[in-house]
Prior knowledge:
single chain; 1099 residues; alpha/beta; 43 helices; 19% strand
Amino acid sequence: MINQSKENIKKHIKTHTKHSDEDRAAVSILETFLRSDGRINPLFASDDKWPNHDGTFEFVPDPDISRAPKQTFYVQIIGTHIYKELDNHEIKYSLKDLAFPAFICNEVSLDPGILFVILNPTDRGNERVFWKYMSVDFLNSIDFAKDSSTITFKPEEEILNNEDSILEFGKQIGEIVDYHSFVNQLDRNNYSEEEVRNIIQFCSEEIMDSIDRLDILNKNRDNVSRRILTRLDDLCVSALLLNAIHDGYKYPSTALAWEHSFLNINTKYLGNFYRGLQYIGRRIPNDGQSERLMLKYYNFMWQIRRSLQKNYCITILKNLEKFTEYIGIDEIDKEYYKLVAEAFSTVKFKSINCSAIRFYIQKKIPFYIGNERYFEVTLQQAGLYASKYNRITAYTQQDISTSYSIKIEYANVIINLWGIDTEIKIITDWKVSIDPRCLNKLARILNIPLKISHKYGEYNTLMQFLTKTGMNFLEMIDLREIKFSNVLDEIYQHSNTCYFKDVLQKLRDNYSIDSNLFGKYTIRYLLLNLHEELLDRVMPSKFSPKWKYNDLFLSCKCLPFEYNPLVSNLAGSKTSTTNQAKYLASVVEREKTEVAIPYWNIMKFIQETGEIYCNIDSNLTISSIQKYNDHLDAWEKRQGYGIIVKEDVAYIDSYERSTLFILKKLLELSHISNKGQKEFNEAYLKQNKIEFSDFKKKEALKYAFVNSRVLLIYGAAGTGKTTLINMISSMMLGRRKLFLTKTRAALQNLKRRIDNPGVDATFVSLDSFTKKVNLPDYDIIFVDECSTIDNRIMMQFLAKIHSDTFLVLAGDIYQIESIEFGNWFSYAKDIVKSKGSNIELLSTWRTNDQGLIELWKEVRNNGPLITEKLVINGPFSENIGDNIFNSEIKDEVILCLNYDGKFGLNNMNSYFQNANTEEAVIWKEWKYKVGDRILFNDTNRFSLLYNNLKGRIIHINKLKERIIFTVDIAISLTENDCIKDGLEFIDTVEDGTRIRFDVLDFDEEMPEENREKTIVPFQLAYAVSIHKAQGLEYQSVKVVIPSSNAEKITHGIFYTAITRAKEKLKIYWSSETMQEVITGFSENNLKQCSLDIIKEKLN
């Protein structure tokens, strides 16, 4: 502990000597000496930039493994020629100003300090560098009652201008770091509440100083953001300790304070934030990325400022609002959110609605008006049969911090949006409400018989506890044993039953973070959110038998995830993607997540660029890759999870392996001829006298399967790919045909477009082909929308086909890509080139508008004249404004990227629905009107009402326990078709059929077979997401791209959006947003490098 008078210390902090010429020269000398290949990263000042110190340096122990700084050091740098060297080579120097040691002494529990004294800084060749660590013992040796102090430097405290000396200095710095970290200091020493408060104030001053410098250091804003991030860690730990002290813990450790924060929803944000900082702390953000993190952590700074002021009367971060000036918040959204904030004052608590259905928080975005914080919340209906399109948007001032399903209380409030009264939902209260079925299924997995319901007292008590704390079961079972027991006592002390208590106890005993039981990772991942769909998927079925390990009722599909959850998906769910990393970090031990960083880095690189070969650099080092590979077992290596390094590039083994396998197989098929096929094709064309408006289709039919067993069909939207498939199908009459697509919607679309598939034809989705068909049974297989099919599925498919089978593979490589890794179809275009094996359709039949055709072509090829075509040809561009809402065309749609925001899907649909003068019918949290445009979602209830089927509501009849919709749909059906599908046939109408169906009111006790009938199978479709619009076409398309969405608009997304239009296209964006989006196309056009390597390997 520091044994010094605080008054003596503080009097020195108020003074600071200006830099001399020798000091400035010393800074330059020190920067030269400390060259260290990234181990020591200085941020020094040659001028008197900071009070009491001369800047900082970050220490990185091993930059080959991670660039994450382990510690920041404050420095003072003094240049002098006045010193005394003793016979034992010690140096005596008189420190005339004690401001720096006083500064460190006053804040000893924060970042450590190093005093550098450079002797003879202006005498070239004779410079010498000495350093002194501001340890507790050293600081106690200074007499702060005096104005100066003599310092002795030992020979080992000299840094020589060579690599060995720098390495030795780094080694000693590392030893200092090991015992000086903030958390260790707090755990070792008894800090009073007053001292913790002082630390909070110091952190606040440092952060405020950094924010103030944003306008001065605008070019280095990312460096400023990084400095703020390092200080946030100290602020967070201090607040955690203060909270624990306030709740009665006299001298809490950081671990205890962190755990304690999770027992109250008002302090849980501190625990989550600290965990996030530790996750970030394992790696340093890339250039440009620290500021992105700051956008998220602004919310934390706002919350901690509010909390400290409210609970402890501590005022911090007075200039926090200044940071928002540099965040770049969209002005249009800002105006909208101000309108929403004003609506909170109009809430009438007498007209509060209570939701009967459950929701998950799909997205939560904070926004700030004045000194208040609000949230825009996207809620997704929970339940086994709900789709991601069963969403609503609401607003609240409550921070709903749970990963489990909830029920809400809300008020409908009117705001005036674009001159129309528009209803928004304001959440006034919420509670955790897990479907009892999920609890019972969790118990089933643990082999505990349970049938709990919402009527049980223990269920309600448990939900109240989860609401009050915001905890999930994973956080609960990771509590220390005594704390966990206290929690159970709190939940069950007044309950008449304790059936689920056995489940919680078994989870704690067997699957906490310290457990070594097989099945631990699967169980822990399930506890994150208890999604019923995932609970069902991990249990055994007729297609996936029970695994043979311990007593868990789990499918063998869980085994890859259980062996390595950081690289394997759990039972078909996308759990290994980079956006799942933060969730996996709480499921898996910290050491394992650190090891997997190289794998995630390559995955992220692939997602962003499409490249599979990643350059070795400071973010991806040889040593970190070797460490990752060493942790893989034999099975994982056989599966291709290893990272291969060759000639300065790294790649995931299975990604290259699958790519090469697919391309080799296609190349083999493309060189197998079929005698007599040429004559057969010519005879067919001659007999049928087909009139071709596109000579490319005639060429495709003429040479199909003559010299190749495979035919690749490429083409933009509307070029007739499906038409060509239909022609080939007709030509190959009498053959056994199989039609495959990735999605059920695409399958239904293909089924409608094939005139004469044949009696033996089969239509199946690729996801289920292994269960439903035997590929060698077919003579010809058609696969549509190949750009959406990932390598894993395509590899499985090609491994099962017979070499005598003909293949037709069609798709558009420029539209939205496969969700998982899928590059094969793109590469095949440039690799499979034999005659008759590859055709690209260039003539579009979707539109006759030459301006649209030229624009599509320019965007498709990423040409240099995209801007000119957008501005001159249409013009197709316009600033965001009221013209969006001027609609004169019946078949028109607005395309948006997001659901939230002023120009998100929800508001667009709400506006047009409110402009509809028909009376609104309220059903649960949704509103419907006669005349509403709709699109059907993917559902198992009606096989005929496929995903993206267009419709319009004709009549609505709301009864007590159900609602009945009469709808016109854009396909022709017969009465027989409808009866088989559970629909009521009403009449045939222009361009389609009028049908009727009902939706049931949800009841907790209803039988399982009725649950799917409670889901409304369609969504409003005045506006549609760009992703959902893939495969659709409209007479008129309006694309809305606010500046906040610019960086999310990829080439594929933009191309998909603009090619939905048949006649009219208008893109609403600013000129700056247009430039940012188009520039991004060029930056992301990087696939040529991998293609060249693949070609070389194939040859």
